[in-house]
Amino acid sequence: MISAANLLLLVFAATVVQGALSAPTPVSAQADFTPQRANWQSATDAAMRPQWDFGRVSPLKRPKPEVEGPKDPPPREYTEAELRAELEEFLARELAVVRIVFAPQSPEQCFATIRVSGAELCVMAFSDFFTGQREAKTRNLPAWLKDVTIGEITADSVTVSAPSRRNPALRFEVRLKLQAGTSLKVSTGR
């Protein structure tokens, strides 16, 4: 005798064998992927174009009229006398001759001590040599001092050659006087 459980097992096995032996049915496959490219530029342009703009007589934003304002005046031409006077005034304000050691028998031994305004220090000036040129990069001396050269040192003044403030191509010689109340030492050569 066959039990009910065995009978169910035989029926299940028969259906499985019958399904395996029968012709296979095709599985419903997904359609092949095809990329869809949208032209976003034309879609954006069409969406942003106002549909109500065709009947307007003038645009919303009107161009601003060109207004001719005052033009800059041409740069002023300075004469050499004006440039020299400006340089003399500038050097008198910025440089002060504090001390001169004058040796009439040997001019190459003459030197002067010059105080630079704003730098709070003094520099030594010899004929054709100026310590400010060498020290302008390392100390707190102004940059324009590099272009200043010392000419002749006399008993009461120092001749300085410096470029013009407005036109550096022009150089002028300016005589700086010894300040009143300062020292003058005359060497007798002993």
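[next item in queue]
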Amino acid sequence: MMPEVNSSSSRAHVDGPPPQGPRYIEPLPAPPHRAAPTPPPVEQTNIRSREVDEVVWDVSRTKDVTLHLELDITEDLEPDLDEFCRLARLGNFQGAKQFFQDNLEQHIDDPYIFVQYAQMLMSMGDYQGVEGLKAPYNLEHSKHLQLQINWELIKVFTALHTEGLSEEDAPLAAEEATSTNTFQKARVKFEQLQAKRDEASLKDDAVDDAESQLGSTECQIVSLALHIEARLHQDKLSIETSILTTIYEELLREGRIWDFRDILIGAVYSYGSTRAFEKFFGSSEVALDRILLDWSTTIHDESTNLALLDILTSVALRRILNPRTFPGTKLWVDEAGILASNIIRYHPSNLKSRQYIRWILAKVAVANYRDMDSSSELSDLPGLFPGRTRGGELPIYVPAALETPDWHLLRRPSKSNETLQTALKAARQLGDLETEAMCLSQLILQAEEPADLFDDLINLQKTIQNDNRPLLKTCLSRYLICHDKVSRDTLREEILSIKGDFGLHPTWLWAKRMVLRALSHSKHEAELLLDEARAFPTPSRNIREFMKRNKLEKENGHLHISDDSKDYPPTASDSMERYEKRKNEKESSRERERMRYEEEESSSRYYERNYHDENYSPSPPHASGGSYYPENNQFPPPPSGSLIQKFVNMKVARPVPPHNLADYTRIPPAPDDPYPRTLATGDNATAKVQAALNSTPNVPPGTEDAVRNTSPKETEPEIPNFRRPPLVSVSSMKEGED
């Protein structure tokens, strides 16, 4: 029996190859279920106190998961702040203000940006601009404590220049500058830093604790506190030398030369250059070398060169100029000149900068220095130049009564006028008000008619800067050119309009009362001002001598003015007449002495008072000074033989003075000398001396060139063997006199 065949299979066989056997299509088995891997335990984290869901990616699941991540994003202002601070450091305040308006003004509510802008206005001398600032509301937040301190010190510093501080407010301001809430907060940083340094030195490790690092804000606080202390004449800061040394080492290690510059200049203002250098370097003698060696670089780094030039120039301008300090000040200016030449060569774009302009001013001040105390014309004035003068500062004259000296006695003409005009133009282009005022002061010292320059300087300090502190000193200096009633009255009103003392030294406040006394309109007003001047405590020695010399002390310090005087003062003729009379008396005395020198015959007995004028006696030949002689300001030597004196009332003859050998070789021996009688004339000299004297004639002094062919060795005689002077008793000498 044949098996049954499927018809479809038969058709397939016809069309193609016979099938190999039955085929079965089975479904693929499902893959075994794999559990998702267990993730490692993750600690629950908090961002802004909110829980974060744990999300794990599983390839077996098709559910989409969307993540939302929120971050606080702020604009990076550091590059803009760096550029703003760079322009301010260069003294390009006009460019810095424009850059701030274009890039940072919209962020003025940021406390740090606000304080930096206020610092820039204070540095340029725009105290009126600082007064117009309004602190942002968030500056009072606790996390901005250092910025609060910085802003408070800026306000105190500005008040010292604008409004002034009363006697009651000055101690409070000094306390504010050095209290626990201000400077002590920064001081804690220094102590922490020093402790970390000491601990690290024991472990030979480095300090990485950010909490103890000294920031730029702390450095600025220290600098401002030192400047305020200097202006208030307080001594409450008293930073220990060890702390300043630690600060210096930290700043040097980090290469922060500009922060070092701020603290050093503040210390120079507060302590003086000598004491400040001792605190930083141990000795003022090595300060210049230490600064140059520690901070100089092998490459000509622009920022470092400018900072070093700033330090050296600022110290030179701050030093007192007198004969004792002048060589040291000149050395600082010369070293600054080397840095200035590097800037000219490698960074010529920085020629228009505060550092370079002030180096020019320091160089001109040193070149034109003149010791006022050594000038005979100035020393003859009845008034006084009080205080200590620094390079380029205007002199202040305190009149004894009503006199006004001639400006030409104080003028310092030089060839640097064109250079100063160029520096003034550059300072105005930079918007550097402080440097502009310094340029005007230098130009005033060289001007023949400085009235217009005085007007420019007063307008700058009064209207633009609102800086009343130097304005008062400028007005006091202007007294030197006020010779008529109109100018004196105008100056009086200008000085009276300046309210406050502005932390000035008592010497200048005393000078203010004395100048107003000379400008006063009545005798009563003058006496009141004189009483105020006497009331200032602990005046200097030269002020006490000035008051005593002019009879201005309290017991008899009233002005002696006749009652019939209608105007007070009508002119300054009274005191100037006394000055002219005193000057003429000195000139007459010098003329009489000169005539005696030229006409009077020399006396044979030089040391005896046998002159016709009993009040006249010449000085000995070795004296110098005090008398007028055209050539060498010395008396001429006495005539020949005048040194031979008669010994009177002497037990033993005086020591034999040096003598000319030619005067003794022809003198016969004395009858009572101990030598044998066989000795001939001239035997008291050696044979060699006699031969030399016989061959060479006696040459008078001043005619040595006449002897051409004589060897120096042959003409130098040996010391003769003088006989011993005889001993003469007093009685025999008296008998001889009889």
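[queue empty]
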